[in-house]
Every structure is written in structure tokens, then in C-alpha cells.
Amino acid sequence: MKDPQHELLVDIRKQIVLHDVSTVSELSKITHVSFPTVKKMIDDMIEYGEVIEHGQHAPKGGRPAKSYRYNSTFRHCLTLYIEANEIHYRLIDCQNQIAEEGVSFVTGTHLETLGTLVDAFDQHTIKLGAISVGVAAAVDRGRIVFAPEYPSLAHLDLKNWLMDRTGLPVVIENDMNAAVYGFSKRDETSTHQSIVYLGLGKNGPGAGILVDGHVVRGQSGFSGEVSFLPLYDHASFYDRIKNKSYGPNVLKEEEIDAMGRLVATFAATLNPHAFIFSDVDLVLEDLPHINRACERYLPSRHIPVLHIGEWEEDYFSGLARLGIELMLETIQRGGV
Amino acid sequence: MKDPQHELLVDIRKQIVLHDVSTVSELSKITHVSFPTVKKMIDDMIEYGEVIEHGQHAPKGGRPAKSYRYNSTFRHCLTLYIEANEIHYRLIDCQNQIAEEGVSFVTGTHLETLGTLVDAFDQHTIKLGAISVGVAAAVDRGRIVFAPEYPSLAHLDLKNWLMDRTGLPVVIENDMNAAVYGFSKRDETSTHQSIVYLGLGKNGPGAGILVDGHVVRGQSGFSGEVSFLPLYDHASFYDRIKNKSYGPNVLKEEEIDAMGRLVATFAATLNPHAFIFSDVDLVLEDLPHINRACERYLPSRHIPVLHIGEWEEDYFSGLARLGIELMLETIQRGGV
DNA sequence: ATGACTTATTAAAATATTTTAAAAAGTAGA
DNA sequence: TCTACTTTTTAAAATATTTTAATAAGTCAT
């Protein structure tokens, strides 16, 4: 199962695609593998069209290095997320450039709609390398364990179902987890940070939690279920925000306090770098108020940075990242 | 810096010492390195006395395998923790067997006392491989960043100070982090779990947090500072437990509720497998009451398992594990 | 323009690792 | 006991990787 050559191949791919490393000697340093070995691998990849020579790298003193780039049309990735009545999808290349996007309306069950959608891409001229799926449900290793929005998916091993149907590698992720992961991958600095992403959602609030860059899943799939937090003598977090008017707007004082307490709760436990609210729920103007509310409970230097995230973009970014990583890990030598 | 041979050596050591793997073919499978390569390494280790041939492994069908064990007198590890007025220490072998233990009373500053203590082991006949230190302070990569109990250590890079003084590898860890790590390493099943370890302490409560087996440190060293949790309209967690009588005893109703809310807070955020209270603070009888209090806030299947930990043993176990791991990672080939 | 310096690439030699095949050492059943 | 089977160990051959040295291609200062 563990093939060191394949691991090196994947490592090189990821460095080229995900971190813009483009010369052999840089790759050699980063992967801790010698120059000749990396070069041989790159030559192979060029031979079957996975990598393309791209000219010169900006020289810094000596002989300029040849620069290589990944062939972004080599494989594409299908990313999609499932909502109550629609499935949003994007066909992207390995750089997250959109080749095609659209919405499929759910007719019949969610499963049927999903099936016909992915079947359409089998005929497609573009070659797929992976499928990445987001759901508003609890997921355990590709299996849907709790799905209030879509009964046809409940308790289904969606990952294997899709893998059998398409023959492609598949990753399934919860919506909040995908969003927080996507947010964290926007810039390199936040990649290994701890971040909380809050969405108020139609079925009650939920949070995606990242600790040192890793998604927290919890013992029983209950992580991030912040509704239940006992923040008041006789009221939970949910009690104080359940009447919030739908859509992005300025919060009421009571809601501000609840948000401040929520942020304080995370600060005094995980002490994360950043706390993200969604643009579907809040406006920028709310943040200083929440920060001030939080300062009532603990010293301000321990309060995470507050942000407004772009929900759909973050969600799609997370799915894209998960799908692309999976794709880069699973392409075999020679592109088989 | 990255030497694949050394990595294999460390991997083999850890498997033998930490996971009781004793035959070459098992090692070969686990490390994904071929039989001849592992065998060569083992032969080397036998040559300079790090590993000893130990007879036959119980055969299961074919030719019985030779069995090897680690020479537990090869190197020892000094573990110690610093309190307000004393330093407790244990000299252990790689199996955490105690060779010597004792208490040093603090005379002068903590730093002076620590210095004379470690100097004593330089003369010792037993060869040291690492030093592991626990402190009731916030630690950032070996540096003491906040230390209410010992002014002489404040802002000191204790790790480098000790490394310079002794020439040995050193690890410094916060007390709660060490304890939760030690608890998690007691049995293999909990190694990759998420666990919270609460201590009420003299300087207010604090928690050590493990997520999927990794210690959570936080953005500003504030992780686990549960004192500040806003759990009531006008009171924090600390407000409700600050008057608790010292020592292990049966909690009052008000304290029970605070503990229940604390557990619920973690359940609705990290959703950990276990929540550990210390035998210094609580008695076994308190646990069902806390569990019932927690059930007021969320469904019982999401509540972590509640335990009473043995504080000093867990603390020392964590230090031992950290020290032994460090020792196994840093011994050079040939035992130099 | 020339020479000193820097970095990248190529080629060859030296190491290290894996694979394959054969031998050794046991068990279990006829 | 003999044979078939299993697993470990050893030995030899085949691969893969790194190291070393040589060469190529640039910059920069004079």
C-alpha cells in the first residue's frame, strides 16, 4: 500500500500545484529528496503531459533554473454541494479555475438528482480526477450519519455509492467543516491556525472547528453544535439567537451579547486565532460590537480576530481544496 | 537535518520500546521497510548494546521468529515538576520504571534549586538521555511566558537554559498538558482521542485539552483557561467554584451545576471522548451527579465519559512519555 | 570584456534498499 | 516418520537514491 515513489510523486504534485514551487532544486530541498531523483520524476511527468516546461525562473545570482508548471487541463475536479431543493456544482481545474458551473434542481430524491448529475460528466470530454461533495449533515468517513434535510441520504455510505457509480475517488464533507477548511486555505499564514466558522443556518446554528489546521470531528459527530451551549441561567445560545431575522443584518443587543459569549467560550477553551461569521448572517458593522461584548468576559489580547466570511465562496473553496488534494493523491504514475 | 536512516532508527526504537514490537518481520511490516534493512539496523543496535536478543517469539505456524528487546539501562530519563516550594523528581528508564525518586525543597530561587538538582545527575553513574520538566505556567516552545508561581522563571527560555547547562535534550511542558497527555497514553485505545483534563489548582482552574491526541496550545497561550467561561447571566465558571473547599470532596449543588455546564460546553464544541477530573479535587461519587447536571443541557449520548484521574501519576506519566519520546528521537547511531 | 562567484544541471560512482530466490526451522496431518 | 505447509532468515541480484565531481549558464565588480 505504501509506495515511496508514489509518495514522492504526490509530494511533488502538491508542491507544484498548491504551493507554486516550480524549479527542481526548490522541490529537492522541500521534499528532502536529491536533485537527480526529483529531476527523473519531473521528466516522467513531462513525458505523459502532467507537467510542462515553462521557461526560466527568475535567477538570483547563478545559472537560472528551468521553471515547470502543472498542466491544469490534465485532470478536473467536480465539486458540488447539496441543499434542500438544489445541488450547486462547479467543474474546476487543479487551480480552482471554474470550467463550468450550474445548479441542478432536486426532482425526486436527492440521491436520484445527484446520480443523474454525476452521470452527465461521464460523457464529458473533460477528464475527471475526483469528486468532492458538501452536505448539511453529519458525516463519518463518507457515511451520512444524520441528515435532517435529505431523508434519501440518511445512513447512506455516500462515498462508496458515488465511487461505485463513477469509478472516481470521492470525498464527502460537512458544510461547516468544508467552509472553515476553505477559509483557512485562502492564505498560507492561516493554514496551521485554529479557526472557528459559525453559520446560523436554517436548521439552527453550527460551527466548523479547525485546530492547528485539522478539522475537529468529535466523538459522536456533535462537534460544533453550539446551539446547546449553556450561556445563561435559563437559556442556551440558541434561545438567544433563534428569533434573529433572516439574512445579513445588524444584530440586536441581546444577540450581540450571545455572540460575545460564544466567542469568549472558544477563547477560553481552544483560544483560536480567528473566529469567522458568515455574510449570510451578519454585516461587518456587527464585529466591533461583538468584540466589545466579548471583552466583558476576558482580556482582549486573547480574543480571536473576528471576520465576515463569504459563505458560498468559502464552502466551494473548501470542497475544491479537498477534491484537488484527493485528486493529486490518487492520480497514478503515467496518469492511469 | 532529515536523515532517512535516523528516522528508521527512531521508528524502530519507538516500536520496540513504546509498542512492544519484538520481531524483525513485525518491525518490517509496521515501518514499511524491507526485512533485510530492518535486520541490518537491529544488528547494529545489538553491537553497541542498545538492543538485546531475547529468545524466541511464540510461533504461529512456521519458523519461530527471534525476539528482541530494548536494553532498558541504555539511557535513563530525568523527569521532574516544579511547584511553589518543591521540585519533585523521578529518574526512570525507558519503560518508565523508577530508578530513583525524591523531592528537592526550594531554597533561594526556583532556578537555583533546579540547577543544583540537575547538576547532581551529571556525576551519576547512570547515563542520562533526556530531561523532562513540568511547570504550572504557560510555555511557548520551551520558554516560560507566564508564571505566577515562580518569578525567577518568568520569561526565561528554560529549555535552552537547561540544554546549555546539561548538554542534554530537554522538553518543558505545562502541568495540565502533561497530565492529559499522560492520561491519554495509559492505554492504546485513547491515544488518538480527544480528552479534557480539569484541575482546580491553587491559582484557579485550568484544563489540558487534547484533540485527536494532540495538545491544544492556542493562539496566545490561553487555551484551557476555563475560569473565564461565561456560563451564567452574571457569573463565570470561576465564580461558581471559587469557594469550593480544598481537597477531594463531595460537591455542592451549585458546584455540580457549574461542572455540568463546563462538560456541556466542551461536548457542544469539541465533543471529546473523555473528560477527566482530578483526584485532588473530586471524589468518584461526584461523577454521576455531574453527568446528570450535564444531561439538562444536551442529549446524553454526546456527553463524554467522566473519569477521576490520579493527578500526580498522570502528571509524571505525561512527563515520562514526553521525555522518553524525546530521548528515543535524539539518541544518535552508535549511542553517541 | 574578463575573472570571480553563484547556482543549476548532468554524469558517474558509491550507497542503500528492495525484490527474488533459496535455505532453515518449525507445525500439523496422513 | 514423512510430506505438505507456514513463516523466518539469509544470500544474491536488481533497483533506486544519494553523493561527488564536472560542466553549463548566468550575475556582478572591475
Measure the end-to-end span of chain A: 17 Å
Question: What would the principal axes of the Cα set say about the shape of chain A?
Answer: globular
User: Strand fraction band of chain A?
Assistant: 15-25%
Look at the structure and give the mean pLDDT of chain A: 92
CATH superfamily of the largest domain in chain A: ATPase, nucleotide binding domain
CATH class of the largest domain in chain A: Alpha Beta
Helix content of chain A: 25-40%
How many discrete domains of chain A?
Answer: 3
Strand order of the largest sheet of chain A: 5-4-3-6-9
Provide the CATH topology of the largest domain in chain A. Nucleotidyltransferase, domain 5
Based on helices, strands and strand pairing, what is the structural class of chain A? alpha/beta
Short description:
The first copy, chain A, has 336 residues and is α/β, with parallel strands linked by helices. Chain A is built from 10 helices and 14 strands.
Characterise this structure.
2 copies of one chain form a homodimer. Chain A has 336 residues and is of the alpha/beta class. Chain A has 3 domains: 4-70, Orthogonal Bundle (Arc Repressor Mutant, subunit A), CATH 1.10.10; 76-179 and 315-335, ATPase, nucleotide binding domain (Nucleotidyltransferase, domain 5); 187-310, ATPase, nucleotide binding domain (Nucleotidyltransferase, domain 5), CATH 3.30.420. Chain A has helices at 4-19, 24-31, 35-47, 110-123, 158-166, 175-184, 237-241, 253-267, 286-295, 311-330; strands spanning 51-56, 66-70, 76-82, 86-92, 98-105, 128-135, 138-140, 143-146, 170-174, 195-199, 206-211, 214-215, 274-278, 305-309. In chain A, the strands form 4 sheets. The first copy, chain A, has a 5-stranded mixed β-sheet with strand order 5-4-3-6-9, sandwiched between helices. The longest helix of chain A has 20 residues, at 311-330. Chain A is globular. In chain A, 46% of the residues are buried. The interface between A and B is large, with 44 and 44 residues. Chain A binds a DNA duplex (30 and 30 nucleotides) through helix 3.
